[in-house]
Amino acid sequence: MTLEYRIKLLKDFLTVPPESIDACVADFKVWLELARKPDGLNKQMNDLLDAEGSLSFCDDSFVWLNDGLSGILHIEIVDGRDDSPIGRISLGESE
């Protein structure tokens, strides 16, 4: 079973089980690297939605899935109003 953890504040890392914190922090590090270079991802998202300049990669939180996989395979784009899926950008090999 995959569990989801939303990290918005530093204290939210405390919700991650101690045996999973290393994996969470490793994925968060990858997310930080992506967030520091958002231009490529913003272009992919804008191309996907045909909406130039309307999106930003960085949200106010990091959602970590405790799925047993290392790294970030894709970024899901959801509607901020109701979390309905809009699209997905692949960052790695197919799942």
Structure explained in plain terms:
The chain is of the alpha+beta class and 95 residues long. It is built from 2 helices and 4 strands. The chain has helices at 21-36, 38-49, and strands at 3-7, 62-66, 74-78, 85-90. The strands form 2 sheets. Strands 1-2 form a two-stranded antiparallel sheet. It has a two-stranded antiparallel ribbon with strand order 3-4. The longest helix is centred in the N-terminal third of the chain and has 16 residues, at 21-36. The relative contact order is 0.21.
Provide a quick synopsis of the model.
The protein has 95 residues and is of the alpha+beta class. The protein has helices spanning 21-36, 38-49; strands spanning 3-7, 62-66, 74-78, 85-90. The chain has two helices and four strands.
